[in-house]
Design goal:
CATH superfamily: HAD superfamily/HAD-like
Structural class: alpha/beta
Radius of gyration: 17 Å
Helix content: 25-40%
Strand order of the largest sheet: 5-4-1-6-7-11-10-9-8
CATH architecture: 3-Layer(aba) Sandwich
Oligomer: single chain
Shape: globular
Distance between the termini: 40 Å
Number of helices: 7
CATH topology: Rossmann fold
Low-confidence stretches: none
Order of helices and strands: EEEHEHEHHHEEHHEEEE
Length: 236
């Protein structure tokens, strides 16, 4: 067993519009189709599940209780707005506290690159404080079968031989270039590529065109699910 194998996988999931829609003023309200099965399969694969939200802790805990998710997501693993919001609002979420708690025995500070992933429906959910942490972007995700998330995670792990970051880097090399542009006031060229998963699901891969000054072009690995009517579902 390698040194990395002793550490758990960690999945940080946004709550609203990723796990489901819980806004009573914007019905329908409910869990995303298939999300319980996906969370269960991630847990079976060795993932510790965390909720990261720009909402309040009370709101998140109410959702977990109301929809019977506490057996899958421990209420102690809810990270609300006061701990996920970075100093510069709008850039992303902070994941450092989760990483430090999950991998406090790791002296190299590299385990999270391979075993931790962030998932959300908007770019504001992407990591603000942990470079190279893979981010799955699924816009309006609650409207689509949650299985698309599992497909992406499984593909990353299988391609990367159980490393999420290595999986992303390998897929990026294999994917077809669809666009490129120079970063603002920089010589860095940002490329966006497209890849077709074995299931037929399309994803775009890039290293983030919102990189902070001084970051290199591989600081923000992002995989964006291309929504398809094939996966549209009503809420559970």
């Amino acid at each position: 067993m390698s040194e990395r194998d002793k550490f758990p996988y960690v999945a940080c999931l946004d709550l609203d519009r990723t796990i489901g829609n819980f806004d009573e003023d914007d019905p329908p309200v409910g869990l995303r189709h298939g999300i319980k099965e996906v969370l269960s399969k991630l847990a079976e694969r060795g993932f510790k599940l965390y909720i990261t939200t720009f909402g309040s802790e009370a709101h998140a805990l109410n959702v977990l209780s109301k929809y019977n998710l506490t057996s899958l997501i421990d209420p102690s693993r809810v990270w609300p707005i006061d701990v996920t919001t970075p100093p510069l609002w709008g850039y992303g979420k902070t994941y450092g506290g989760i990483e430090e708690g999950a991998y406090f025995d790791d002296q190299t500070q590299e385990i999270y690159l391979h075993k931790m992933i962030a998932i959300g429906d908007q770019l504001a959910d992407q990591p603000a404080d942990r470079k190279y942490l893979v981010f799955i972007h699924n816009k309006d995700g609650y409207q689509y079968d949650a299985d698309v998330l599992l497909q992406v995670v499984n593909c990353l792990l299988e391609t990367g031989q159980d490393s999420l970051k290595n999986g992303f880097d390998t897929l990026f090399e294999q994917a077809e270039l669809v666009a490129e542009k120079k970063a603002f006031q920089s010589e860095i060229i940002h490329q966006r590529k497209r890849y077709t998963l074995p299931s037929g699901l399309l994803v775009d891969l890039d290293y983030g065109d919102e990189a902070k000054p001084g970051d290199n072009d591989k600081s923000h690995p992002r995989i964006t699910i291309i929504n398809s009517e094939k996966y549209l579902r009503e809420l559970d």
